[in-house]
Design brief:
Elements: H1 3-20, E1 29-33, H2 39-47, E2 52-55, H3 58-67, E3 74-77, H4 86-92, E4 95-99, H5 102-111, E5 119-124, H6 138-148, E6 154-160, H7 169-188, E7 195-197, H8 204-209, E8 214-217, H9 219-222
Parallel strand pairs: 1-2, 1-8, 2-3, 3-4, 4-5, 5-6, 6-7
Helix pairs in contact: 4-5
This protein binds pyridoxal-5'-phosphate (PLP).
């Protein structure tokens, strides 16, 4: 299977899941997670029509963004964010899915260049409540969202999560439904959110069943990653 074949197959699976789970057609966007993959592989994905790419490591991402500048792409930062890296993230990405602290949001807001539209962000939630996992805890989510909402150079779009791995569809779906409920709670408090970034190669169907609007697929498109 080529990268183009993989993308075609995954898009078909996504469209089929939208139908099966009563989701609007084309309400789920495919983000190709290209961390550790060489730029040639991203070009294959671009030739197949892929426009959204997710990257975790800033230096690696900046090289690819620069090399692929002539294509109309959207870049999604999905990795851990160090405070000293926020400027380059604010200058080079369209989306940041992994905001979980006010200090990081405030820096992205201040550093987003004035000639670019507001930076789209999602709050990463520690949905499985794992000690070691990054993300804001559910108990602190509302306060964080309300604090970030007024930052005018950001556009708070929704929530993201990486649950503890499970091979069971119903378990996967239950965890993602928790994130969808958290989103509904924020909406009921007046926040206008339209994005749920949830689902990866092995649990994207359960995520779509639970309301995902962006699935982040890496190995399913590009094959296994280099260490
Ligand atoms: C690596 C990564 C993915 C993609 O995972 P796959 O299992 O390869 O699809 C998705 N989201 C985040 C945040 C990642 O770091």
């Amino acid at each position: 299977m080529t990268i183009a074949d993989n993308i075609r197959q995954i898009l078909q699976d996504i469209r089929q899941a939208e139908t099966q789970f009563d989701r609007a057609q084309n309400s789920v966007r495919l983000i190709a997670v290209s961390k550790t993959q060489p730029v040639e592989k991203l070009k294959e994905a671009i030739q197949a029509g892929q426009k959204d790419f997710g990257e975790n490591y800033l230096q690696e991402a900046l090289g690819k963004i620069s090399e692929l500048r002539r294509y109309p792409l959207e870049w999604h930062f999905i990795g851990a964010i160090q405070a000293n890296k926020t400027r380059e993230i604010a200058e080079n990405f369209n989306w940041v899915h992994s905001v979980s602290r006010f200090q990081i949001a405030e820096r992205l807001h201040r550093q987003r260049p004035g000639d670019l539209p507001p930076l789209n962000i999602c709050l990463q939630v520690n949905i499985s409540e794992e000690e070691s996992k990054s993300g804001v805890n559910l108990a602190e989510l509302l306060a964080l969202a309300l604090a970030i909402q007024p930052l005018g150079r950001l556009r708070l779009r929704g929530l993201m999560a990486i649950p503890a791995p499970s091979k069971n569809f119903d378990e996967q779906r239950t965890v993602y439904e928790k994130l969808a409920q958290a989103q509904q709670l924020l909406i009921s408090k007046g926040l206008s959110l339209d994005t749920l970034s949830m689902g990866m190669t092995d649990d994207k169907m359960a995520a779509i069943a639970a309301g995902s609007t962006m699935v982040r697929v890496g190995t399913g498109i590009f094959g296994s990653r280099q260490a």
